[in-house]
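Sharing a chain and its predicted structure for anyone who wants a worked example. Both blocks are below, sequence first, tokens second.
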Amino acid sequence: MLDVITRDEAVAAVTELAAGQPPETELLPLSQAFGRVLARDVRAGENVPPFDRSTVDGYAVRAEDTFGAGASIPAQLDVAGEIPMGQAPAFSLHRGQCARIATGGMLPPGADAAVMVEHTDAEHGLCLVYRPVAPGENVTKAGDDIRQGQTALPKGRRIGVAETAVLAALGIDPVPVFRKPRVAVLSTGDEITGRTDRPGQIRDINGALLCAALTGLGAEAVFLGAVPDDRAQILRAVAEGVASCDAVLLSGGSSAGTRDMTVDVINELGSVRFHGLAMKPGKPTVFGVCGGKPVFGLPGHPLAAYFVFRLVVRPYLEALQGGAAESAAARVVRVGENIPSNHGREEFLCVRINEKGEAVPLHTRSGVISVLTKADGFIRIPRNCEGIAAGTETEVFEL
């Protein structure tokens, strides 16, 4: 029997190892920083926008000059000039004056609002305003978006589309980011050949699955291929991964079967820290340290391998990138049917959200992978819990 530990204990063990590996940083051009993780807080060195600007095409005005304006009695303002785009106004507005302005144009001194062109009529240097505006209407003030000195983006934030726009607005280029972790991926098993024209052979799912999952977390996946159940070959492949990468993921060969050599290989190159998790799926997971680097032995079944990656490996990679945990907040929904669970292990189930907004389990086995394409997320059933009754509220986590 495996001497199992809880998932929380496993996560504590792997993140403790990451804490002893200070993440390296690098500078990247903004155009190459998408998907990477910020290595420091980004503080605004300027206001965004840097000046008061109009949000409409029309006329910059002193708001008080438009008070009381209406369709029958428009306000009459003298046109003091036009404000060219991309230039600072060469004049100020005085009482009873306005200035032609385009969207994004800089308000002249004295102006505190803008009137849409649709609400005006101008001819021969005179502008009739048929609708009043309040101070600040149709105007974005300097610093309304981002104020100088504020933390615009925190360290550990993954750079997406929105973050890229903020960095561009602040002129942050190049961008300080954490170096991508390099992670070796290895599949094991005599049955993993990539061919299905021979009885008993299957394609390697885990290699592609884990490489894709790593890429999605901003890591660099280094696929070392599929290796048969040969101790010498597995030993060489793991040693290569330890020498060239920051971590190694191998799937298969982690249970108590006679052909399972993961534990022996890790112990020869380093030491096993735990073997067995009190979670379903994923019980036969192995974790060890070789040359100061983590080696994860994941189950061979694809769904089990995915959940161990999602719940144990991912926290390590996030810690290695400055603690970049960007998971969306879990949704709280009601369970649509009774879900029994008496395995003595923390259980994770894929669910779909039905037309009533309820979580309904997608019953499957760990060897099935297509369930991930049908699921809206997954739920957690605590260890030593007999299940979740229909109507009970529970959290649904993103896959």
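Comments welcome. The first strand starts at residue 25 and ends at 28.
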